């Protein structure tokens, strides 16, 4: 690995491994090297890893998914290590939003920028979902941005369908709960594609208000943040909610006005956000339908 690529700096602690910025010595091309801790058993690469890699190879044909350039596994001190080599983008959405919040003159993201990033995110999610693949852990940290070109791509698809998101990642870092759908937080075991659209809604709101919509620091607190804004879910709005494994009696809050949470978002934006944050997964808007919403009417789709 060292011979072909020159490691430059660590750029991310993915859910399943360290990510380094690196340079292809021959071509000078910048890449992202994702080192995975896949334990090679005696038969070589575990089938789950092979399935993840094949899913990635199919998915990364979309320009809205970070492209997997190649897969290399090498022996390192006798241990077989799997490297995934991805295209490199210079920042992630978390840093991009922070750069607009912090600093001497904090400034909002231009509405056209939010609209363009949200559209690209929905395209990437629609692509994954059309292949029956959930991301499961969409968050600003794993959405990559090319500032100059105004491009957003989904990264860290390392979860696919065969993993559940751990509470801690492999470096014992806390995995954020802020973008997690209520059905997952309430212990549903048969959650599906709508979990990603909940995350998209939280990211949409965060781009507009430049702070997280539901910043919970535990699974229980995460639910309370959601209930305080959207109201405590009832069987009326979400049939079956009280049968979910981790449901119990919660304080009863009434729904608040969503507009107050995202004051800079126009009526179309608030309407689309409300459809992404429907409690009942069956009512939640799909990525494909979201792209047809009037909020995008003014988007230059060229
Ligand atoms: N954190 S950062 O400096 O903005 C930054 C992160 C990245 C990443 N690129 C990839 C590619 C693939 C998988 C995960 C990551 S994380 C590139 S720049």
Q: Tell me the major beta sheet.
A: 5 strands, antiparallel
Count of alpha/pi helices: 9
- H-E string: EEEHEEEHHEEHHHHHH
Oligomeric category: single chain
Show unreliable segments. none
Calculate Rg over CA atoms.
20 Å
Question: What's the end-to-end separation, in Å?
Answer: 39 Å
Q: What are the bound molecules?
A: 4-(1,3-benzothiazol-2-yl)thiophene-2-sulfonamide
Total strands: the figure is 8
Amount of beta strand: 15-25%
**What is the average per-residue confidence, as pLDDT, rounded to a whole number?**
90
Helix coverage percent: 25-40%
Query: Based on helices, strands and strand pairing, what is the structural class?
Result: alpha+beta
Describe the structure.
The protein is α+β, with helices and mostly antiparallel strands. It contains nine helices and eight strands. It has helices at 47-59, 93-101, 111-130, 182-185, 194-209, 219-230, 258-261, 267-276, 287-291, and strands at residues 5-14, 17-24, 30-36, 68-76, 79-87, 91-92, 143-146, 151-154. The longest helix has 20 residues, at 111-130. The site of 4-(1,3-benzothiazol-2-yl)thiophene-2-sulfonamide has 16 residues, from strand 1, strand 3 and strand 6.
Keywords:
alpha+beta, five-stranded antiparallel sheet, three-stranded antiparallel sheet, 8 strands, globular, binds 4-(1,3-benzothiazol-2-yl)thiophene-2-sulfonamide
List the helices and strands and how they pair.
Layout: E1 5-14, E2 17-24, E3 30-36, H1 47-59, E4 68-76, E5 79-87, E6 91-92, H2 93-101, H3 111-130, E7 143-146, E8 151-154, H4 182-185, H5 194-209, H6 219-230, H7 258-261, H8 267-276, H9 287-291
Helix pairs in contact: 3-5, 5-8
């Amino acid at each position: 690995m060292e011979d072909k690529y020159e490691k430059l700096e660590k750029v991310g602690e993915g859910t399943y491994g360290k990510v380094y910025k690196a340079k292809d010595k021959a071509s000078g091309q910048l890449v992202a090297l994702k080192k995975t801790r896949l334990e090679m058993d005696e038969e070589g690469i575990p089938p789950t890893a092979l399935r993840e890699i094949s899913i990635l190879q199919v998915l990364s044909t979309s320009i809205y998914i970070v492209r997997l350039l190649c897969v290399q596994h090498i022996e390192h001190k006798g241990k077989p290590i799997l490297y995934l080599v991805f295209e490199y983008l210079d920042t992630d959405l978390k840093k991009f939003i922070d750069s607009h919040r912090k600093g001497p003159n904090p400034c909002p993201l231009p509405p056209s920028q939010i609209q363009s990033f949200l559209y690209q995110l929905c395209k990437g999610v629609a692509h994954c979902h059309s292949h029956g693949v959930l991301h499961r852990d969409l968050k600003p940290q794993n959405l990559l941005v090319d500032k100059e070109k105004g491009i957003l791509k989904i990264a860290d698809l390392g979860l696919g369908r065969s993993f559940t998101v751990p509470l801690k990642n492999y470096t014992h870092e806390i995995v954020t709960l802020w973008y997690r759908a209520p059905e997952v937080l309430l212990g549903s075991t048969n959650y599906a594609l709508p979990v990603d659209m909940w995350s998209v809604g939280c990211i949409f709101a965060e781009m507009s208000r430049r702070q997280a919509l539901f910043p919970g620091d535990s699974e229980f607190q995460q639910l309370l943040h959601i209930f305080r804004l959207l109201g405590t879910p009832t069987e009326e709005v979400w049939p079956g909610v009280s049968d979910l494994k981790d449901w119990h009696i919660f304080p009863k809050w009434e729904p608040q006005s969503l507009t107050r949470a995202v004051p800079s978002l126009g009526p179309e934006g608030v309407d689309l956000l409300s459809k992404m944050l429907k409690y009942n997964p069956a009512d939640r808007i799909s990525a494909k339908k979201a792209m047809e919403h009037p909020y995008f009417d003014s988007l230059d789709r060229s």
